[in-house]
Amino acid sequence: MNNQELVIRDLAVLWHPCTQMKDHEWLPMIPIKRGEGVYLEDYDGNRFIDAISSWWVNLFGHANAHINQKIIQQLSSLEHVILAGFSHEPVIELSEKLVELTPKGLSKCFYADNGSSAIEVAIKMSFHYWYNHGKPKKTKFVTLSNSYHGETLGALAVGNVELYKDIYGPLLMETITAPSPDCYEREEGESWEAHSKKMIEPMIEILESNHENIAAVIVEPLIQCAGSMRMYHPIYLTKLREACDLYNVHLIADEIAVGFGRTGSLFACQQANISPDFMCLSKGLTGGYLPLAVTLTTENIYSAFYDDYNKLNAFLHSHSYTGNALGCAAALATLEIFEKDNVIQNNKKLSANMANLLKPLADHPNVGEIRQTGMVAAIEIVKDKQSKQAYDWRERRGLSVYQHGLSKGVLLRPLGNVVYFMPPYIINEDELKLIVSTAIEGIDIAVSRQ
Ligand SMILES: *Cc1c(COP(=O)(O)O)cnc(C)c1O
Question: In CATH, what class is 31-63+343-448?
Fold first, then answer.
């Protein structure tokens, strides 16, 4: 079996996610045969460093020995069981661990099987909480510009990336959008902190005038990942928590992408010293192995649903694979690695390395900004450095970086004109050097293209 044979079979029967399939007339798709550590290997024997952790899910490499072993162990006793009326040890143990590790106050775990569903759970629970408390008018959700929370209709409605959302507008519930504290938009000479702090003002105005109709504010703490890795200062989250308390509005923290160490702390909310009313986790939860998601919430929310059955106050929501035992085993193995390998501490060195390697790019005439938060770094490619004028999206400059990356054995997948690195935490210095130098070459090719 080689790449070509598989591609032909693939195109006959598959429709790939987030892809204009016509691109595959000229852009080769790559069938992967095996993964090992940061490497992916295709059927022609080419190897690629997975610099984007396979869409931000992988934390400790492909075919990780420890996670493999724990899944195999679980497989021999129980693969899955209905979670309504039944339970199992992995889901109990995982929930205990998550309650212990997440910010104080989050004490109950509700499982789903993908990130978007975890968002749907938080949205429905928030609305339903207010309903059960005699406040049925609290139906609106406040979201940030440029935010992303998934693709199912509820999650899409509370997101704001036009590319994914606009066409489906007629199908979506109405939301209220506050401007993002995104520091790429800060004025020259302004600090991240000053900019992010200032951006709480329009949010406060919205809450002040509409809080009686608002159920919750939903944010991606510190990094708007799908919105081109735009970043902001933790002060915004601190201020937002205060404002939500003041106006009696829930705070939903979508840590699906930023959780599990991506921002430098285990959870991004910890950098602001806040605890949300809902925290959604997925992606890195299983180390990138299996689809699993969880929405953590507080005793206060939980108790609003706790009543005699015939009051009909229960949260009657479920997904078939909720709390899957294999997924929970993978998640437990992942958390064990965090603990035994002192990952958060060791990542500090890695992210400092990343910052050093990116320094030479600061003067590049087509680099508008290099930004980094923990283990995520991003380069904004611009047409004009002074004005930060962007390239027209139709030119697809980022695609040239993608193509160059593949030719050099590096999987980079720019978001429009933003090249970013979100590698597995087991990447070594040489591999980091290679992904950065490949990205720099790719950027040079992309900007010199017609
Ligand atoms: C990926 C992502 C989601 C959606 O998760 P899926 O598992 O893809 O449905 C939601 N929010 C954020 C911040 C994400 O990055």
Answer: alpha beta
Residue nearest to atom 7 of ligand 1 (CA): 115
Predicted TM-score of the model (pTM): 0.98
- Look up residue 154 and give its two tokens: 């509820």
Radius of gyration of the chain (CA): 22
Fold of the domain built from segment(s) 68-341: Aspartate Aminotransferase; domain 2 (3.40.640)
What would the pLDDT profile of 372-393 be if each residue is shown by its tens digit? 999 999 999 999 999 999 999 9
Q: Residues 426-447: pLDDT tens digits?
A: 999 999 999 999 999 999 999 9
Mutate to test the pocket of ligand 1, among 158, 228, 282, 319 (most ligand atoms within 8 A of CB): 282
- Expressed in angstroms and rounded, the spacing between residue 356 Cα and the centre of ligand 1 is 30
In the reported structure, the alpha carbon of residue 286 is separated from the centroid of ligand 1 by a whole-number distance in angstroms of: 14
The residue among 278, 231, 233 whose CA lies nearest residue 253 is 278
Instruction: Please give the sequence-ordered ranges of beta strands (E in DSSP) within 158-213, or none if there are none.
Output: 176-178
Kindly state if the Cβ of 261 falls inside 6 Å of ligand 1: no
